[in-house]
Design a protein that fits this description.
Order of helices and strands: EEEEHEEEEEEEEEE
Structural class: mainly beta
Oligomer: single chain
CATH topology: Immunoglobulin-like
Strand content: over 45%
Helix content: under 10%
Number of helices: 1
Number of strands: 14
Distance between the termini: 36 Å
Shape: globular
CATH class: Mainly Beta
Length: about 180
């Protein structure tokens, strides 16, 4: 993956126990040829946070192809595994050696049970940027995984929310990349 951009918008829901996390990811898949391949990813949430299967909500677009469309009924398979709901996305991509992806995932998390949001990837990432926006009633702590060095930009304290940015211009190997710890204040 190249030019990997993640944006998190985190807010407390009306019941003040859950946070809703909107994760927007933009990146480019680089292929060696134009052969068809199966693009897959999955999202896991605790059953208690799934709101009867509503979460995680997943959507994506292939920005440089009008012929490849997201079809929620056929592209997402859901399964239960222990206390988790797993939604697996599988889509055949064809005809290009680069695919510009925009993916949105929305999920909910009970802060009384779990304050940690983890991002990992089983692919190599070349150049990553992370933007985190969160309400004034929250504090979000960014924790790099492994020995990945991220550069932090200044925290912006705006009227309704705080915003913080991190980036790494190098190559990151497969595995866990970072964690977000979310705390109510």
């Amino acid at each position: 993956y190249k030019n990997y951009r993640k944006e998190y918008n985190i807010k407390i829901t009306d019941n003040h126990k859950q946070v809703e996390i909107q994760e927007l990811t933009r990146y480019t898949i680089i292929k060696r040829n134009k052969d068809d391949f199966e693009w897959t990813f999955n999202m896991r949430v605790d059953k208690s946070d799934s709101n009867n299967g509503e979460y995680p909500k997943i959507n994506f677009k292939i920005l440089n192809s009008d012929s490849i469309k997201f079809d929620e009924k056929n592209d997402i398979k859901e399964e239960e595994l222990g206390d988790e709901i797993i939604k697996r996305v599988s889509k055949t991509l064809q005809g290009k050696d680069e695919y510009h992806i925009e993916r949105t995932v929305i999920f909910s998390q009970n802060l009384d049970n779990d304050r940690e949001c983890i991002f990992g990837c089983d692919k190599i990432i070349d150049d990553i940027s992370i933007n985190i926006r969160y309400g004034k009633d929250l504090k979000v702590i960014f924790s790099p995984a492994w020995k990945v060095n991220y550069h932090q930009e200044n925290i912006k304290e705006l009227a309704d929310f705080n915003e913080i940015n991190y980036f790494n211009r190098g190559i990151l190997l497969p595995g866990e990349k970072f964690k977000l710890f979310i705390i109510k204040v």
